[in-house]
Design a protein that fits this description.
5-stranded antiparallel beta sheet; 3 helices; 5 strands
């Protein structure tokens, strides 16, 4: 119970920070303003471990181009989306994942206003925390 409360408090702090920041945290990560260890970096996409993992493997795959959300995707974003899936495939192969999920969040479930894909794998995924 205490663990759950601590998680919720941390999550609330992060959401407030992300919602009140004028700058996009993922854009800061992509630009190098916020230091992050990339697992994969291409000309269009970066991938890195989620700071609040909900499964054994929880990797975020983020286009370098700022796209607000899945509902904001346009025809000109096609190559970015294809590259996101290429990177996901590479990560699945590199990590020898036999079972995995790829997920996009939207609306109130999207914590950061920058399109990103979650690569999830492991024994259990805590969907309530995603």
């Amino acid at each position: 119970m205490i663990r759950r409360v601590k998680f919720l408090a941390k999550e609330a702090q992060l959401r407030v920070k992300y919602m009140t920041s004028k700058d996009c945290i993922f854009c800061k990560i992509v630009s190098g303003e916020m230091k992050t260890n990339f697992i994969v970096e291409t000309d269009k996409v970066v991938a890195f471990n989620d700071i609040n993992p909900v499964s054994d493997v929880h990797i975020l795959i983020v286009p370098k181009k700022h796209i607000e959300s899945a509902v904001e995707i346009s025809d000109s974003d096609a190559s970015d989306l294809v590259e996101m899936h290429r990177v996901a495939k590479k990560l699945v192969e590199d990590n020898k994942l036999e079972a995995f999920r790829l997920a996009y969040n939207g609306g109130r479930f999207q914590h950061v206003g920058h399109l990103h894909m979650h690569l999830l794998a492991g024994q259990k995924v805590d969907w309530k925390k995603l």
